[in-house]
UniProtKB/TrEMBL annotation:
Region (Disordered): 1-37, 112-149
Organism encoding this protein: Cercospora berteroae
Protein name as catalogued: DUF7924 domain-containing protein
Residue spans crossing the bilayer: none
Biased composition regions of type Low complexity, renumbered to the chain: 134-145
Coiled coil ranges: none
Length: 423
């Protein structure tokens, strides 16, 4: 394979013992805001609730409301049923009577259930909007982000499944092309040969990894060594909010990948960008790359790998949905081939993991998205282990670009517009 990406040269800078050397933590204001709870609708929508401080707070709130709810005295009335009333009653009960589903679970409280979030007396407090209506019809603060253990469950409720998820029959869904994906990852690259990426370069990587005590430091000093010089020639952006995409759930925090790869907007026909904007144009800043299908989430040594995995889970779902929409553009009924055309990656404390996500039709006809771990690497172990991991990252990136370009060209050649909707 011809040379494709050289190891970028960087000047060694003296590390500052300031905020950049400390793992980024939420501010005190944000920590206080995080204690605000979610509206009752959020908890009612979950089929499984993890034991968290917020869950206990909601349980206590409901218990208090139940205990304080006064009994409603039902007055007794003695009325005489006339023959004409009997006929009306028989007619009313014909064919099973009226639909009373809207009264299911009705509790005769005189007072409406109070909003779970107490009004704050602190002025200027920053809150996060969940987009979910509160019980009194107003908006309630709070969104669920990957740092919350409920985040994954909310995605599962919307048919977005994590790696290793088992269905009711104990089956784990993997992409049909998983073998070919795993075969392409270890292909060697000339840019990572021992003569070009030397043992001394590997020691520099180890040193940079040890000093990266914050996520920002890792992104600036560690990640460029992994991605290689070719990365500068690709359509990629960092830390961009996906604020133009339709969310999988209203209460989810907007996805914001540390790094994503896509296509130039003009590469996608304007009518397709218009029809599929909520699926393939990630940002309201429409000049940024579109149709993202390769993602990176990085953490420092003190970061949480479980958070990175949940971030990749959300990123990948958006990418898989984008490719699925392009693949089925103009079709009245979507087709499922079982293949994965997107890959996401996470890096935490020297560990690189690669994941695919593929769409699948459920038994009810809905679209599901299943994430699968492809490989995991210990990049700080040896120079050879780094070369293998970096090659896998770059090979996965090239695969994603090839599939993205192919599906965009296929959609551009299609007559007609989008005929089906995928949530």
């Amino acid at each position: 394979m011809p040379p494709d990406d050289d190891h970028p040269q960087r000047k060694r800078r003296r590390s500052l013992p300031a905020r950049d050397d400390i793992e980024e933590q939420p501010s005190a204001k944000r920590r206080r805001a995080d204690f605000d709870n979610y509206p009752p609708e959020f908890w009612d929508a979950l089929s499984k609730i993890t034991l968290t401080r917020r869950a206990l707070k909601e349980f206590d709130r409901r218990t208090a409301v139940k205990k304080s709810a006064p009994e409603v005295a039902v007055g007794k009335r003695s009325t005489r049923l006339l023959r004409s009333d009997t006929k009306k009653l028989l007619h009313f009960a014909k064919n099973g009577g009226p639909n009373l589903n809207h009264l299911r679970g009705f509790s005769a409280h005189l007072q409406p259930v109070a909003n779970m979030s107490k009004p704050s007396s602190r002025k200027g407090k920053r809150t996060r909007d969940s987009g979910l209506p509160s019980s009194d019809g107003t908006k309630t603060s709070g969104t669920t982000d990957p740092y919350n253990s409920q985040f994954q469950q909310m995605l599962i409720e919307r048919r977005v499944y994590p790696d290793g998820y088992e269905d009711s029959d104990g089956n784990i869904q993997e992409p049909a092309n998983i073998n070919s994906l795993r075969e392409l990852l270890p292909i060697s690259r000339s840019s990572l040969s021992p003569s070009r990426f030397t043992d001394e370069a590997f020691k520099d990587f180890q040193r940079a990894n040890r000093k990266a005590r914050s996520e920002a430091k890792a992104m600036s000093s560690v990640v460029p060594i992994i991605t290689g010089a070719k990365d500068n020639r690709l359509q990629t952006e960092e830390n961009i909010q996906f604020n133009n995409l339709e969310k999988f759930a209203p209460g989810l925090k907007v996805a914001q990948p540390d790094k994503y790869y896509g296509a130039r907007p003009e590469q996608v026909d304007e009518r397709i960008r218009r029809d599929l904007g909520q699926y393939i144009v990630p940002s309201t800043s429409t000049s940024l790359p579109v149709a993202p299908n390769f993602f990176f989430e990085g953490k420092s040594a003190g970061g949480r790998p479980d958070v990175a995995q949940r971030q990749v889970m959300q990123d990948n779902a958006y990418g898989a949905r984008a490719m699925f929409q392009l693949q089925n553009y103009g079709k009245e009924t979507p087709a499922y081939d079982g293949n994965a055309y997107i890959i996401g990656s996470s890096y935490s404390d020297g560990q690189l993991k690669l994941y695919s996500t593929h769409p699948r039709q459920s038994a009810t006809g809905d679209t599901e998205y299943h994430m699968t771990q492809l490989r995991a690497y210990a990049m700080t172990d040896t120079a050879d282990s780094f070369r293998e991991a970096a090659a896998a990252y770059r090979n996965a990136r090239d695969f994603a670009q090839k599939q993205r370009d192919r599906l965009i060209a296929q959609a551009n050649a299609t007559q007609g517009g989008c005929l089906f909707r995928d949530g």
